[in-house]
Known about the structure:
Elements (H helix, E strand, L loop, with lengths): L19 E5 L11 H9 L2 E4 L2 H10 L5 E4 L5 H13 L4 E4 L12 H9 L3 E5 L4 H9 L6 E6 L4 H11 L5 E6 L4 H12 L4 E6 L7 E6 H10 L8 E5 L7 H14 L4 H12 L3 H15 L13
Parallel strand pairs: 1-4, 1-5, 2-3, 2-4, 6-7
Antiparallel strand pairs: 7-10, 8-9, 8-10
Amino acid sequence: xxxxxxxxxxxxxxxxxxxxxxxxxxxxxxxxxxxxxxxxxxxxxxxxxxxxxxxxxxxxxxxxxxxxxxxxxxxxxxxxxxxxxxxxxxxxxxxxxxxxxxxxxxxxxxxxxxxxxxxxxxxxxxxxxxxxxxxxxxxxxxxxxxxxxxxxxxxxxxxxxxxxxxxxxxxxxxxxxxxxxxxxxxxxxxxxxxxxxxxxxxxxxxxxxxxxxxxxxxxxxxxxxxxxxxxxxxxxxxxxxxxxxxxxxxxxxxxxxxxxxxxxxxxxxxxxxxxxxxxxxxxxxxxxxxxxxxxxxxxxxxxxxxx
Length: 307
């Protein structure tokens, strides 16, 4: 990593004589997380493009800052771009902020950033708080490679389809979920990924009521179902990736050993899922196949399975 160095003054001139678009990260909860540089940028700029001007206005007041606010959200971003480009071309500095955290992560602003860059204007990040990286930092899973999937679809069928697409992802998976849907989401995850899959539910990060639940999907689901407070606030779900190297071979050998010891098919699948990270439903079907082969082709029946 590069060693930190003193950053040049935010008013450093650019080659085309225009202004600069500063992409500024703001606190996700704790006001103390606004960096000194971010405060200096917000104090310097003439205009702030904000997702919610009322919310950003209150934030600026907390720091004694004043700037002209211009709303920029998913419904008006395209129509705002020409005006903001004119401001930049006239040498005005503009800050882009979201309601909380780092702009463009499941928030508007991508089209403005692309348009400013295409116009030859300076676009510069002012990094800081981000709920996704904050959740990854406390999850305890490997985060050298991860997938961020934004907000899951609201409808049950679409959400389940998205989760099925992510179920075998070897990288750590992070996504947002609405509080009133978190229990249903966890139930889907148990069905799709198996109840033993490790997960972290990071809620209200950096706020007064911050909680970080960790455990298997089944364990976290039970805690969410009995504690209504876990179904409130802003939530980041972090799911451990599926082990890939040798997982299939390990699963087969584990299942065979368990079945030879007389462990029931359903229990063998549960134990193998916990040990290998595989999907319990898939391991159950594989255990049935192995049990049948071990009995010389006779149909195997799980003694704990009704019907």
